[in-house]
Amino acid sequence: MLGLADIRDWIKTLDTGAENYYIGRLDAKKDKSIGVYSLNNTSAAAIALGGDETTKTAVKGVSILIHWNKNARETETAAFGVFEKMMFKSNFDIKDTHVNYVRLLSAEPIDVGNGADLVYERVIQAEFYYER
Fold first, then answer.
1. Which of 3, 43, 54, 94 is 20 to 30 Å from 103 by CA-CA measure?
2. How far out from the chain centre does Cα 111 lie?
3. Which fold would CATH assign to domain 4-131?
4. What is the pLDDT of residues 31-43, one digit of tens each?
5. What is the DSSP string of the chain?
6. Where is average pLDDT lowest: 20-24, 46-50, 66-70, 73-77?
7. What are the sequence ranges of the domains in the chain?
């Protein structure tokens, strides 16, 4: 199984410039934070012909929130940096799980504006295809 904490820890290795990493919710929403959440509209579970015993891969859908600072340009740059580092990732391991590839679900990080604290945010939606 590939969990949110595993993906968060992998993102830490990408040299994103973030100072804080979270799963679940961002408490206190510190600047230069990245949060990893389950993606609500991920693909349905795919079972190979022959059933569970012949199914070799699974998919983990995630939404990656880039909560950066009060400068829209710097937030966009930081989000694109993470996006580009994930763009062509394939055939690597996260802990003991082999990831075949990462599929980014939009052409660029999605601008979600800013919250009550006026910090700009972008979201990267992705699916991790991994060996079971």
1. 54
2. 15
3. STM4215-like (3.30.2000)
4. 999 999 999 865 6
5. ---HHHHHHHHHTT----SEEEES--SS--SSEEEEEE-TTPPPP---TT-GGG--EEEEEEEEEEE--S-HHHHHHHHHHHHHHHHT-EEEEETTEEEEEEEESSSSPEEEEE-TT--EEEEEEEEEEEE-
6. 46-50
7. 4-131
